[in-house]
Amino acid sequence: MSSLMEAVRAGRTPEVVSLLDEMTDTERRSLLPELKALRKELRAAPWEADARRAYPPLYAAGVACQTGAAAVAAWIAAADMRWSQTAPALLLRILGDRSPEWLADLAHRLAERPASSAVPYELMSGLVRLSGCAVPTTDAYVRGWMGHLGWAWRQGGTLLDRLRPDPHLTELVAALFETGDIGGQLEWPHGDGPDTWTGALARLTAEGALDRKVMVDACVSRLLRGGTNTELRVFLRLLKLLDLGRDEERERTGDWLALASAAVSPVASHAQSVLAALALDGELTTRRLAEMSDAVLFRPEKKLVRAQLVLLGKVLTRDAATADELLPVVAQAFGHEDSDVQERALKLVERHLNKLGNTQVRGELAVAAEQLIPALRSRAGLLLGSTPAAPAPALEYEEILPPAPHPAHLGPAPMSAVEVAEEVGAALAAEPGVAGFERALAGLVRHAYRDREMLLEALGPVLTRRWWYDADSPDGPNHTGRFDRSDFTVSDAEDGLDLLLAALFGKVNPGTLHAFVRQVPTVRDCGHGALSRAFAARLWEVAYRLRTDPLPFLLSTPTWSTGLLEPDELVDRLDEYRRLGARVSAADFAQALLRVRRTDRAAAVRAAERATALGTAEGARLADWLGEAEPGLPTTRRRTSGNRILLECGEILELQGDFPAEFRPLGRPTSVVEERWYCHHWSNDIRPHWLALLPERRELVAGRLLPDLSAGAVHDERGAAAVLPLLAESGGEAGEAVHLGLAYGLGARHAEDRLAAVDALLILAARGQLDAARLGADLGQLVRRGALKPLRLAESARTAAATGANATIWEMLRHALPVLLAELAVGGSGSAVSARGLGELLAVAAESAERCRARGEIPHLAQTADRRGSSRLVSQARRLRTALALGMAA
What we know:
The protein is mostly helical. Among the domains are: 1-133, no CATH class; 417-627, no CATH class; 636-837, no CATH class. The protein has 46 helices and two strands. The protein has a two-stranded antiparallel sheet with strand order 1-2. Helix 14 (197-207) packs parallel to helix 16 and helix 37 packs parallel to helix 39 (736-746). Residues 388-393 and 471-481 have low confidence and may be disordered. This is DUF6493 family protein. Residues 531-611 form the DUF7824 domain. InterPro entries: DUF7824 (IPR056726).
């Protein structure tokens, strides 16, 4: 037996199999403990040469030495054995002397394993062949069968040729329709020929190898089960290839009705076309047609709704007797969200109204007409002969906006070392946000000053997986156990915490920390450089003080989650520093000054008086800072970059004077050229912390984020707009940069970015800080230049209006539309303003104007409304013009 284990370790598989053949069952079972011990040993280093050599014979020996089918199945499907590269033919030879019942049990146990276990299909199918058992139809077996047939192209012939002789064709094809998420595998290769799944299955059905009724029923049943477009389109393609006859379609009328009502759009469209053909041939009763229309006219897809109205029109034209039953169904479209659909439905009623035989139906239509938009409602009143009662006095429109959000109070720092460790662990596990980061930071500093040893003990379990923690190992950085500056880049909150913790545990040389604290930053950098350096400077200086002269606590810990610090709280902290005789950290105090609230002038003046009374240099500096006027907007200049509009900010002198060198770039002029420098700030997680640097100067941050926000619309990048709601919640005046960034967010490529922009728009409106005229003008210019796509903007505007902010959206669009309508009038075919996209914007504007009863005129609107035709652009321009005229009349 020792010779067998030696052969296993040496990787001599043929020798191992030969030795196993000579053993009895008892001898084989006695080897199991040694084989399991070797398996455990190899699991520790599975990719080393010794392990890779031993795994194939170990895999084979384990299969041979197990006696129970369950144990063998577990050994074969084990994750650590998956890459043994042992041929299925060898395993079948080893297992060939077992009884058919045992082999059948093993085959089904392996087939019941998840497909991710990667049990070879050749092994499962070989066991089925040897045992003569029923073929398994599990997920793993069916996928393995499909993969085996798909990869057999190297043997020649088509997929159809490989399917024909399969003895289990009927059972496995039936199982295809019951296997979840199989559509992607069925679609490869693409197309409908004999070397594709759909083409081959359709041909086998036509030849009689597969039962036609079973195949048709299976396709329809699979479509009825539902799923994604990707999953269902292959089954829909197969159903179309089966080319159902009229009798087959008619006997499944109930299925088509269900699919037209609730299936995904492509499937519903096919079911609708089948039912339409039956209806036009007189093979669908009026009641069934009405039932179908009830469901389809409530679907959001305008294409399906329009097709249904066309079908109803054809049936009404052919058979006037159906008017009493079908016109009330048509009237259901009066409540559709799209005004073009409403108008189509009203035209249909106009055309066939004289066919009504039941006078009560006219009253039902008049009631339904109350759902129409105002312009169509008056037209329906004239048509239906209804004389509405004198309207009640119109109520003043009331805008519905979400409540303005309030920042969260940070609360006290963690009171014990264990609580600090919990806060730090949570902050390292996931992006902590400003509040979580600042609380963890404050706790580290406070407890490092109070009881360093207890803090280190509490933090130990939290840091076992940090990359720097085991720096004393031979594989540590520089083989010294200490890190230098090049090992740390403070790009986000997690990096900052790693730096502080590494410094606290003595993993960073004090000289390295001091060198960074003394270094003056370079001038050339990307547009985010000033924000990034200021954020990092405080952390590097605090890390240095943790090693040399711990701070009793931080001065700059904010009071609120936005980063804002109350002035009285900062005075109290400076007073405590004076009492303790503690030396203030320059970067920490600079950050505290940038965070302290100055917009509340009464509170600022009172705090300034208290700060002066402290008699310290920091108290005097704080008093001077609080005594200055509240920060205003920086001077800006617009610059273009391709089709984008960006901003350059002028110098801010108050940020240049007594601030440390690392903070002065915050007040230096910005240039569009800066974005050409290499930028490594690709993480969106740092952006909330940049806002917390300057909680009363969001314009400075917004101006530096404009290139990122514009990239979401122009270059289809994802995620940058997540900062917009935080910008809206931050402090300071919302000026040109905030509104321009919001405009880019509303036209972003990705839906989640547009939703974030809508949230920001609503927050600004709720706080009374939205300049809708400025935003609308920016939107008009960006769409005109091609930086924003009007369809995306229309979707954002519609989403915001759906919350009840109709007046806000109308005010925004009424300043955007004149630019676009003028551009459309003179732009010709090369204009960046598409008629389709502009039509959608006009639709949102018209709906908002109707709801808030807007008044006034839009330049160039009449010219668009007077165009010939009935395109969406023209129809929505006419609708808006009518809505504004009705608003004037009101």
